[in-house]
Amino acid sequence: MELRHLRYFITVAEELNFSKAALKLYTAQPSLSQQIKDLEDEIGVKLLNRTKRKVELTEEGAIFLEQARLTIAQAEKAVRLAREAHLSKQQILKIGFITTAEVRVFPKILPNLRMLYPNIKVDLQILNGNDQYRALKKGDLDIVFSRQSFDDPEIANFVVLQDTLALFLAKQHPLAALETIPLQALNDVNLIMSKASAYGIMNQAILAFFKQHNIQPHIEEKTENMVENIAEIEQGMSCSILPQYLDPFIKLDHVAVRQLECDLPTLDLYVSHRKHNNNAAVEKFLSVLAQQFDLAMN
Fold it and tell me: Which CATH number fits domain 162-267: 3.40.190.10, 2.40.10.240, 3.30.70.270, 3.40.190.290?
């Protein structure tokens, strides 16, 4: 006797109609009738009275139906509990991040994390700073990588690395002929900046730098991401200030990367997590991160 025999019998007993039961079970009526007959032969009891007009449960069939339902319910519970036990071994770590972490952090630590802790499943979500903070506070995220340190007593923040900025411009741009760009040369140049909120902290740092050095470029806030910045640079005489880590990844024939005569600001990349998080995977992830980037997280 198999569980499917019990499921077949329960469906027939509930429908009291072999045709309807067969449709519900996605099987042929003759096959279903044979399955029920085989079940009756195996237990040696007639469970159903069949006539051309109707199907009825026998007294024995009613008792068997009650116990069959309990057996199916217990089997489903056993499956559920086994799956829950398996999932409990698979610790899920939910991480919110920005592009810098995807490029400069994850390739260095995720392979080690998987090797050391194969039961940790990492769920990655790209989000901007405000969305990250809300999700972290609610518990929808365990860890976030962002450009900001969250001013919240319940959240711990650590600087993972600093990104340096550089000037990206088309190779045919007159300034590309210089190895180092004088600050005053940026006056009135066409400078592309992203209008997306995800780049707000970088934009603020760049604008503060211009104000500090009394530089007034012609700024166009028109792109949604850094890939669009590069595409705009390729097409014309515009330039853009972007994280220098992009340089090895683009290597485009028509784009040059130059430093200014005065250092551009750096951008911190923070890792943040709730101080009272019961997810053991958080501590394991942070230990791998601290070892890889030589961080003190005490």
Answer: 3.40.190.290
